[in-house]
Design goal:
The complex is a heterodimer of chains A (481) and B (303). Chain A has 481 residues and is of the alpha/beta class. Chain A has helices at residues 3-21, 24-32, 40-43, 115-123, 126-130, 146-149, 157-175, 205-216, 228-238, 245-258, 283-289, 308-322, 341-347, 394-401, 405-419, 429-432, 443-453, 461-465, and strands spanning 35-38, 51-54, 67-71, 74-78, 90-93, 101-104, 109-111, 190-197, 263-266, 295-300, 328-331, 352-353, 375-376, 381-382, 386-387, 392-393, 422-426, 457-459. Chain A folds into two domains: 3-175, no CATH class; 190-202 and 240-472, Glycoside hydrolase/deacetylase (TIM Barrel, Alpha-Beta Barrel). At the A-B interface, helix 10 and helix 17 of A face helix 4 and helix 8 of B. Chain A: InterPro entries: Glyco_hydro/deAcase_b/a-brl.
Chain lengths: 481, 303
């Protein structure tokens, strides 16, 4: 594996990220800065005001040395700490207890953690490549990640590293020493909103059968049966749109009220429990209900996972319904393989994918709150697709944090406000406002209120990607207007 | 505001606060002396507002000609405690007093059932009436206001395109949804409504005028607009829908009548209105019962 190509790949992703979330002046400063990548032995010998980043230190997945370093009004969570280089003249910045940089008297700045190794491993999903275990749907579960047990799943490590790098470049150009804040240099964070339209009516046979079965499930635990389900069965039998299709209209109006937009991922193709429960026949009505300004993408059906024939069939049907080929997508049940799916989807014409998330927990699956191009080890280059990892599935956030869920969301936004980035939030129509799931009532509204109060804009993936400057639009990835 | 003679200025007192440590030093009065002078110099006819602190205002010459009352459509069993501000809806769900919680929820559920039943029996459509959700203020909004005072008399705020755009569509806090009523191509009214941070739906503005060459009456238009607001707010997750009834202006009475038919409940709970006609302007100032006012006069935190 060529260190040069890996470096080229990582640097291109850093530039993409800078262009999305930092102001022009900072980007120009980073562009002018001297940033060297090379073997540890070589970069530690540099004796001039440069940022020297070792690119030959392997990523240690089992590292248990995570520490918090102060950065502006927040802190960076760093792991795989490096020792201070041998020789005279080196000191830790801000201090030896929680260093971000090792600074030599000559001005050389060396990251105090394995910046290159960590970021490259996260973007290329090294942990998923090395752990073969998958669940019954063929997915890598978030709980299996070595980062989970160390509490690192909710650390946007890529964003933090880029913020540290940008602050160092600005500091070096002004004062000859890295700053430890990017205040005033980052754009306000963004929340990328989306909705997986899995179930559009509450009366399909699978949903009703599951409700019926759940009447009796408590009996196995010697609890009274859930008789209330009979009411929901009857209600959705008579009024199938209630709390499903009607919620699409409700979510659009709610977002409109805040000046936000979102993407609706439409599920068509094979019906069934794991498939398109509501069937494709409802999609024309759904498409008509999504107003201009909101985006429409494909929700890859369960059985299209790495199956070209089925994928092409689903895509063709949806293309006919939409009157154009969808360029954005997310996998139903998040059936997404970090190693094979990006290339597969790129070959099918998908330009931006939002599948890289976990259904069992909220997490930055690739350590990034933003978008990037996945890596193809065969060609040692970026795949021609943008990945916008899904951080938050509404129910996972609520189940994980209960009453504190909104506070956790706020904390994440405040953190991103200090380092730059985009949080992705997926809310299902059947969950948004459904008295059958009381814990979720009003939750999306509360999250949107928080976004507004923090000056965070909610937008569709399409809108975020549209902010990438033309000079950074790679190949044919995003058509330049 | 506007009446049959044209557009004129009034000043609305949005918020007046005095630090408790400085009370008794006539600071309130001194501040209003400045405001009165400013209003007089700028041709403003009256200063008015809503307040629970009427004493302070009457002491400096304000009148209290009326009070806001509420119309309310419950959509959820937690709507009543949320409305009464006794407990937030969330607290009510897990609150300490089982009895009061149960009583409120039962009352909310029953009231909601009655309201939903009444709504379902009301026809909200007419073949000639089209309702459209707009994304920017309509150009002919000012004409609707002129026609409104011409048909209904009294006075109301002059909402032209620029005002509605600023007040509703470009509101940085909450952009109220704006459903306009058209008979043919003619704008005949609108309703603006929003979901507040407390999950209560708020009717921000309702207005309607006679349509020409059609049997679509203002009553039919108001019924269609209010029904749309209820349905949209229910889909957005509102606990209930609140609106104002303030005066005996004929259109305000019409809105109240239609709202009751649709299942709204009317109850007398709200703030006092205070008005100070400025010296020399009394003869030009309408009696308060001739005013038609809605939440579109307020600062806009609720849409």
């Amino acid at each position: 594996m060529s260190a040069e190509k890996r470096t080229e790949y990582l640097w291109s992703q850093i530039l993409l990220h800078l262009n999305l979330f930092f102001d022009r002046q900072t980007i120009a400063t980073v562009d002018r800065s001297r940033i060297l990548f090379g073997p540890y032995a070589a970069v530690t010998l540099e004796r001039r005001p440069v940022i020297a980043i070792p690119n030959d230190i392997p990523y240690n997945m089992a590292a248990k040395d995570a520490y918090a370093a102060p950065f502006g009004e927040t802190h960076l969570t760093l792991w795989n700490r490096l020792e201070i280089p041998p020789g005279d003249g080196w000191r830790a910045l801000p201090d030896n207890a929680a260093p971000v940089w090792y600074v030599h008297a000559s001005g050389t700045h060396l990251p105090a953690w394995n910046l290159f190794g960590n970021l490259f491993a996260l973007l290329t999903s090294q942990e998923e490549r090395e752990f073969a275990t998958r669940d019954k749907h063929g997915r890598f579960a978030g709980g299996r990640s070595p980062r989970a047990e160390r509490g690192l799943m909710e650390v946007p490590a890529f964003n933090e590293a880029v913020a540290a790098l940008a602050a160092a470049c600005v500091g070096l150009s002004h004062e000859g020493q890295a700053e430890l804040s990017v205040r005033g240099l980052v754009k306000p964070p963004v929340v990328v909103l989306s909705h997986d339209c899995d179930i559009l009516r509450g009366n399909d046979r699978w949903t009703q059968a599951i409700r019926f079965a759940r009447i009796f499930l408590p009996l196995a635990h010697l609890r009274p049966p859930r008789i209330a389900n009979l009411w929901w069965i009857a209600r959705n039998y008579i009024r199938p749109d209630d709390f499903y299709f009607d919620n699409v209209l409700g979510m659009v109006n709610l977002e409109r009220q805040f000046g936000f937009t979102s993407t609706f991922y439409l599920l068509n193709g094979t019906p069934g429990r794991y498939g398109a429960r509501s069937g494709s026949w409802l999609l024309p009505k759904l498409i008509a209900a999504i107003p201009p300004g909101w985006s429409r993408g494909i929700h890859y059906n369960y059985d299209t996972f790495l199956d070209t024939i089925r994928f092409v069939q689903q895509m063709q049907e949806l293309t006919d319904l939409l009157g154009g080929r969808p360029r954005f997508g997310r996998a139903h049940y998040l059936r997404f393989d970090m190693e094979r799916s990006p290339e597969f989807l790129a070959a099918q014409g998908i330009k931006c994918d939002e599948s890289a998330g976990f259904s069992d927990r909220i997490a930055y699956r690739c350590g990034i709150a933003g978008c990037f191009q996945p890596y193809d080890p065969a060609t040692e280059s970026a795949v021609n697709i943008l990945e916008l990892p899904m951080m938050i599935m509404e129910d996972a956030l609520k189940l994980q944090y209960g009453d504190g869920a909104a506070a956790v969301f706020e904390q994440m936004l405040r953190h991103l406000g200090q380092i730059g980035g985009a949080l992705t939030l997926n809310v299902h129509p059947g969950v948004f406002h459904n008295p059958e799931i009381p814990r979720m009532l009003g939750f999306y509204h509360r999250l949107l209120c928080l976004c507004r109060d923090l000056g965070v804009r909610g937008m569709a993936a399409d809108d975020l990607i549209g902010t990438i400057p033309p000079e950074h639009r790679v190949r044919e990835l995003i058509p330049v207007d | 505001m506007t009446d049959r003679s044209g557009v004129f200025w009034t000043a609305k007192s949005e918020e007046t606060l005095v630090d408790p440590a400085y009370r008794g030093q006539q600071i309130f009065e001194k501040m209003y002396d400045l405001l009165k002078q400013y209003a007089w110099d700028n041709g403003i006819r009256s200063i008015w507002g809503f307040t629970p602190a009427t004493k302070a205002f009457t002491r400096i010459g304000f009148e209290t000609p009326g009070k806001t009352t509420q119309i309310f459509f419950p959509l959820d069993s937690t709507a009543i405690p949320a409305l009464l501000d006794k407990k937030s809806a969330a607290e009510t769900q897990r609150g300490s007093g089982w009895l009061s919680r149960t009583a409120y929820r039962t009352a909310g559920a029953m009231a909601g059932l009655v309201s939903a039943t009444r709504l379902s029996f009301q026809s909200s459509g007419h073949a000639d009436l089209t309702l459209r959700l707009l994304s920017s203020a309509p150009d002919d909004a000012g004409n609707v206001c002129r026609n409104f005072v011409s048909q209904w008399g009294g006075c109301t705020i002059f909402r032209d395109r620029a005002y509605l755009q600023w007040r509703l569509f470009d509101n940085p806090h909450v952009k109220a949804l704006f459903t306009a009523a058209y008979v043919g191509d003619r704008l005949c009214g609108w309703v603006a409504y929003a979901l507040g941070d407390d999950r209560m739906g708020y009717l921000v503005d309702v207005i309607a005028v006679e349509s020409r060459n059609s049997d679509v009456t203002p009553e039919v238009i108001v019924r269609g607009l209010l029904s749309t607001a209820i349905i949209d707010l229910r889909r957005m997750g509102a606990l209930g829908v609140r609106g104002w009834h303030v005066t005996d202006h004929p259109f305000d009475l019409l809105v109240l009548r239609v709202a009751r038919q649709l299942g709204f409940w009317h109850f007398r709970r709200g703030h006092d209105v205070v008005i100070l006609p400025l010296p020399g302007k009394q003869s030009q100032t309408h009696s308060f019962s001739d005013w038609y006012i809605t939440r579109v006069f307020t600062e806009g935190l609720l849409g």
